[in-house]
Specification:
The two termini are 31 Å apart. A hairpin with a 2-residue loop joins β4 and β5. The chain is α/β, with parallel strands linked by helices. It has one domain: Thiamin diphosphate (ThDP)-binding fold, Pyr/PP domains (Rossmann fold, 3-Layer(aba) Sandwich), CATH 3.40.50.970. The protein contains ten helices and seven strands. α1 packs across α3, α3 packs parallel to α4 and α3 crosses α9. The chain is 40% helix and 12% strand. It is globular, with a radius of gyration of 17 Å.
């Protein structure tokens, strides 16, 4: 069992959220809603010692893999990698700039620690299943694969093809995390395409299902520990979160999906996160 220091995780999550705000402000475009809602999950993975990675050897054969299927969440991934030591923190402010390695959606190996290209929703989940299958067949079950998806992403048929594949092959080294922040580009998920009861759907597909408050470190830690102890089937963590978490004028707002954070808004957001 892994028991990280929650006080330290809270500190790091605030720092990563501040990075996200500054990056999107400088870029004059981006997707703050999902990046902010998933920050506590990403923080726990990278700084709570659940994800086995080494910045000094980012492509070690025995590393764990994190796949970002919801590619537009990438500012929080970039921030975590930089603060973990994969590349210089100063580079974060080049997000979406011409010639930058920090693209608006991740590109495989554009930066140390980036394990997949993202953009078209649903594809990352299939990539994660392939990695988990390869590790199980040709590597070791000790190599774990984590994949973060959005709730709007559940509209994609490819998601359910991948879910059926993983369950059929009993990929117990695979942990999917669905960030249920209840918004997508066209509105609230309940209005655009209701995904509930999402937990029962994955259970029917043969997954170990864990539903949590995805902005509560105690519940996140407990969920990841449960995954690590599950040896018979893939696990999915249904994480209920708040879009734009931590920034008062973005929390729960559909507009937070894709929005430039102006200079004045940036100052206000940093105050919220201090």
């Amino acid at each position: 069992m892994i028991y990280p220091d929650i006080e330290e995780l809270t500190r790091v999550a605030k720092l990563l959220r501040q990075d996200v705000v500054r990056m999107i402000n400088k870029a004059k475009s981006g997707h703050p809603g999902g990046a902010l809602s998933s920050a506590d999950i990403i923080t726990t993975l990278y700084f709570g010692n659940f994800l086995k990675v080494n910045p000094r050897d980012p492509y070690a054969n025995d590393r764990d893999l994190f796949i970002l299927s919801a590619g537009h969440y990438c500012p929080i991934w970039y921030a975590a990698l930089a603060r973990k030591g994969f590349f210089d923190v100063d580079e974060l402010l080049s997000l979406r700039q011409f010639g930058s390695r920090l693209l608006g959606h991740p590109k495989l190996k554009s930066l140390p620690g980036i394990e997949n290209s993202g953009g078209s929703l649903g594809q990352g989940f299939s990539i994660a299943c392939g990695y988990a299958f390869a590790a199980q067949r040709f590597g070791t079950l000790e190599q774990e694969v984590y994949c973060l998806l959005g709730d709007g992403e559940q509209n994609e048929g490819q998601v359910w093809e991948a879910a059926m594949f993983a369950a059929h092959l009993k990929l117990s080294n695979l942990c999917a995390i669905v960030d249920v922040n209840k918004i997508q580009i066209d509105g609230f998920t309940s209005d655009v395409m209701n995904i509930e009861p999402i937990d029962q759907k994955y259970k029917a597909f043969g997954w170990n299902v864990i539903r949590i408050d995805g902005n509560n470190f105690e519940e996140i830690i407990k969920a990841f520990n449960e995954f690590k102890n599950q040896k018979e089937k893939p696990s999915v963590i249904i994480a209920d979160t708040l879009a734009g978490k931590g920034v008062s004028f973005l929390e729960g707002k559909v507009k937070s999906h894709g929005k430039w954070i102006t200079d004045k808004e940036c100052e206000r957001a940093i105050r919220d996160l201090s």
